Structures are given as structure tokens and as C-alpha cells.
Amino acid sequence: MGLSMHIRKDLRILIVLFIIVSILPLFCHANLRVMNILITCMIWAVVAASWDLIMGFAGIFTFGQVAFFVMGAYASAIVTRTLGITPWLGILFAGTLVGGIGILVGLPCLRLKGAYIALVTFAVHMILEPFLKSSIGKALGTGGPQGIISIPPFRLGSYTYSSMELMPWFYTALIISFIALFVIYKIIHSTWGLAFIAVRDAEDFASCIGINDFKYKLAVFGISASLTGLIGGFYAHFVGMLSTRTLGLDLFLILLVMLVLGGIGRFPGAVIGAFITILISELLRPLGTYRLLIFGALVIILVIYMPQGISGLLFPLEGNNLGTKLKRIRLKNSQKKS
What pTM value is reported for the model? Predict the structure, then answer.
């Protein structure tokens, strides 16, 4: 009963959050800056929640999420510009392609543990920028150091989305982000989610009961990368241009703040953290480079004084999460054997 109540509660929080966000344009649709911030919040909520799926629930410390986001953005931009396909298919292609790349990146990572996985995935992040700027990247359509401009916007019938009217962009982002987050929610509360947590909290016991850790770890790499690539594709068409500046460490740090502030492994904590972090970032924008110093200090303070994040205050799970139950089962089994 406690578990079912928790499932209902975290989904209720997500639904209430999106209902509140969905009615905000009724009051601020004419303010392009506010609308841009709201759309940005929804985009990064998906990226943060996808990263939380693999790091918080599966326990795999990866630092390649921004790279997957940029891959999806470039993939959708390139295929829509060069092949002339609709951006709707472009973002689906981006999600599929990046999901496959995520699986390829995951293959060597699964032979490693802990910090070594983080180093390998961060290496993917670091080599992506020179690749996009190289002659090979330019031949593929990345635009080289100049990036890509004039990325085609979405169309619905004869209507073309415009940067001067953000309501269509807003509700498209709302629908896509909610679907992606609902997929993450369903995975977390399925047998797959149980397997992820089992591998994270009690890997030896998970192996004993027949959970194939290689299969599930590879799957979570693909799912996390795919959803990130999908929303990255949407981002490309929303902003209309791309450059490798998106790979800057400032975005990586901001994304990390989202996870820590919301609560790692506590859905929908990453979503709440994304909204709060983007709003804080916009308020601190006039401070320039000092903004990153403040974010760095914020991460340290949160880790020390509020390690469970905001969601830890909303629904504490110390004795009720699935990982803890698996540990108790393992302990009981070992006691019986002794």
C-alpha cells in the first residue's frame, strides 16, 4: 500500500506541475522572454530526468548527457536541412540515432566501474566538440566552427511555427516533455525500474535472482540517450541555430545543480530541480561569470546540507524504497544460510 501511495504521489506532483505550467501562457503569452524561459525549463527537465534515470536509479555515473543532447540537436538539424524531411520525423530520427549511440557508448562502459565510467562518458563529451568542428563533421553537415543556421521550424499543415509567436512552441514542448517524463515514470515503476534499482543497490543479490545486469545497464544507456536526443532535436528547431558552445561546462554544471537540487534518484525531483535551476540561472544572468561560481557553491551546500534534495522533503523514502527492500531480503537470506 505504501509503495502504491508513493507511485500516485510522484505522478500527482508531475501532473500538478505541468497543469500549473500549462496555464501560465494565459497570463504571459505576450512576454517572449518568460515564454522562452518556460520552454527552456521543459526541455532541460527531460534532459535532467533522463540523466537521473541512468545515474540515480541505475547507479551508473555517466557524464555524457550534454553530449547526447547536442548529438540529437545536430542530428535533427542535419537531416531536416539536407534531406528535406519534416522536423517531426527529424526529432524521432534524432532520438533513435542517439539511443543507438548511447548503447555503443555503454558497451565498453559496462566493463568498468564507478569513476571509470564517468571518465569514459566525459571523454565522449570532450571529443564531440573537435569532431563537430573538424572537416569530417563539416562534410556531414555540422557547419564546422560556424555551426548550423536557418534550421527549419515545425509546421502543422499550412501553419509554420514562428519565433515571434511562442504559444505553439510552448504547447508542443509541453506535450513532448510530458510524454518523455511519463515514459520515465512508467519505466521507474515497472519491473525494469525494479531491476535498475536492484542492480544499483544489491548487484550480487540481483545476479543471484537471475537479473541480467548487462542487459539492463545497456538498456538504460539506450533509453536515457534516446530521450535526451529526442528533446535535443526539438531544441534545435526551437532555437533555429546551433554551435558547439552548447557543449560548454557551464551547461554541464547547471544540469548537475538540477539533479542535486531536485534529489538524485527521486522522481520527479530532477524535473522540479530543472524548473527552479533555470529560474535561478535567469535571475543571476546579470552577474556574468560569477553566476557559475554561485552555482558551484550551491552544489557544495546542497550536497552537505540537503543531500536528498527537494524531493527528499516532499516524500522521504528511507525505509520504503525498493533498493532498501532488496537489501533486507539479501540480509535475511544470508542469515538463514548462516
Answer: 0.89
